[in-house]
Every structure is written in C-alpha cells, then in structure tokens.
Amino acid sequence: MLLPRDPLKVAFRALHGSDRAFRNLALEYLEANLPGQIFRQLAELLEAPETLSRERRRPEEVVQELLASQKSILMQLKRPYAGAGEQPGKPPRAKPQSGLR
User: Fold this and answer.
1) Of 13, 16, 53, 12, nearest to 34 (Cα)?
2) What's the domain range around 38?
C-alpha cells in the first residue's frame, strides 16, 4: 500500500504538533487510508482513540482539508513551546525581576 507523499507528510507533522484539531484531522486521514489493524496499532502507539467520534467523511474531503491546513500546521510546529496566553507572532513577555535594581 502506498499513500500519496504530501498528505502523509502533513499528517505526520500534525501528529507531532500540539493542536488537537490538526491531530484529529491527521488521525481521520490515516483511519480512512490505512488498513484497520495498522491504524489500530498506530492509534495505540499514539495513545489516540481507535476510532474518531465524528461522522465519517469522504476521504477526498479529508485530504483537501489536511492539505489546506499545511501552512497552519507548519507555523504551529515552529512555535511548539508557546506558553499559555502568548499570541502567535508576538514574542513572549519578559518576566519581571523581583528585588534587583
């Protein structure tokens, strides 16, 4: 079985990011395109649900959405350690130093 390179690369990147929506999209793509046993083993390794709760979509729809998300996934991977309250594109706020002047 051979999967197209670009959607597979995007799915791989989405699985390594912290955005749950992108991760679920990648899992949906893999679930639709991998044999059941392989997907179940992968889901176990990723500690992901074996099946997604959403209504099944056509694989073509999932691929289109996955590819359309590629730029956002890459941006998210470039800032994987952004803390809570930080906004994309803005540097983290400096922490005030206490007692030193």
Assistant:
1) 12
2) 15-78
In a domain, 98, yes or no: no
pLDDT in tens, the chain (101 residues): 788 999 999 999 999 988 999 999 999 999 999 999 999 999 999 888 655 656 788 889 999 999 999 999 998 888 755 544 444 444 444 444 444 44
37 in a structural domain? yes
Rounded to whole angstroms, the Cα distance separating 99 from 101 reads: 7
Q: Is residue 39 part of a domain?
A: yes
Find tokens 């209504």 and name the residue.
55
Domain tally, the chain? 1
pTM: 0.68
Ordered DSSP codes for 47-101: T--SS-SSPP--HHHHHHHHHHTHHHHHHHHHSTTPPTT--TTSPPPPPPPSS--
